[in-house]
Amino acid sequence: MNFQFKSAREYAGALPTFNTSEIGFFSTDAEERFWDDNRQMKYIILPSNKNNVFMDLNEGYDDEIKKVFDKSEDTLYLWILKHQKEVCDNFRIPNSDKPHIDFVCYRGLLKTIGSTIYEKKQDWLICATKFNSVIYLCDFRTEDKIENLSKLTERDKLMIFWGMKFEKYMSANAPDSKPKSSEPVNGREKYFTVLKGRLGEHTLLYSAEVDGKDPLADANKPPTECYLELKTSKMYQDAAATDNEYRKFCTLKMRTWWLQSYLAGIPKVVCGFRDDLGIVRKLGIIPVADMPNKSMGSLSPSSPLNAISSFLDHVKKCVIKEAPT
């Protein structure tokens, strides 16, 4: 099955219908075992002065407990098996005993598809199988990606670690407790939200990893609107188009962060601005709704969403036969 993506400009236009809501959650522990609860849900604790902080993202690099990248990510399917009644109730359509779900996948897969119109050189491999009228999508590492992972430099690995270490500095186990930044970084411990979404004509059941919850959020808000995304970025000198670092921040970062957060219904990103040595000096809070305007014209929200919808249209037309039982 081949699909030819157009340019981002050709997908611009009317914003397709999109909505998402949380229908469940689950966790994975230090051994990457599935838990049908929210034990890994964290609270994002902001310092009193966001403009003057000191967070050394290098601390604990040698003690990191790394994620097993080749392990099969079947946690969403375990959740579905344990919550079949909730799935049926949430996706039931009028005058029918069966739920209607077009696709089951992870948020990361949708982000990969939507980002393709901007990142032409990236390659990916997505497999689709149909079972009980539902199409399950799963992405696999290509040979190029496996090779690129094997070629990561120590600097590359360190910068990946910086992002996870920042989460340690910002996350606590309870809303009234403090982060324990001295604990080892463990990339296996995660909290996921399970979402019901609709994009254009497509009904989706998907999950997304969540960094943490805002302890000051209104408890009456939908769960996804209480979540926060944590990111790091290199500091820039001037908020001007002539500053190369500022341009990268407004174009590349805003584009990627918007799509990732929007697909999960997350309203804000907390950014740790760091120097070249991996020291976070200040924090910024960026509403996701403001990102298109901050992107220097590099992001039209309709473009990646229309690209995803168009790809899903194509998959529906190609994946007709049910998988053998």
Quick synopsis:
The protein is an alpha+beta fold. The protein has nine helices and 14 strands. GO terms for molecular function: metal ion binding; mRNA 5'-diphosphatase activity; nuclease activity; nucleotide binding; RNA binding.
Plain-language structure description:
- The protein is α+β, with helices and mostly antiparallel strands and 325 residues long.
- It has nine helices and 14 strands.
- Helix 4 (107-115) crosses helix 7 (244-263).
- The relative contact order is 0.22.
- The model has no long low-confidence stretch (mean pLDDT 93).
Tag the structure with descriptive keywords.
325 residues; alpha+beta; seven-stranded mixed sheet; five-stranded mixed sheet; 14 strands; 29% helix; globular; nuclease; nucleus; hydrolase; nuclease activity
The residue ranges in which pLDDT falls below 50 over 5 or more consecutive positions are: none
- Topology as H/E string? HEEEEHHEHEEHHEEEEEHEEHH
> What percent of the residues sit in helical stretches (DSSP H or I)?
25-40%
**Strands in their spatial order, largest beta sheet:** 2-1-9-10-5-7-6
Apparent shape: globular
Q: Using DSSP, what is the number of strands?
A: 14
- What is the residue-mean pLDDT, rounded to a whole number? 93
- Percentage of residues in strands: 15-25%
Sheet having the most strands: 7 strands, mixed
- SS-based class: alpha+beta
Family: Belongs to the DXO/Dom3Z family.
GO biological process, one term: nuclear-transcribed mRNA catabolic process
GO cellular component, one term: nucleus
EC number: 3.6.1.-
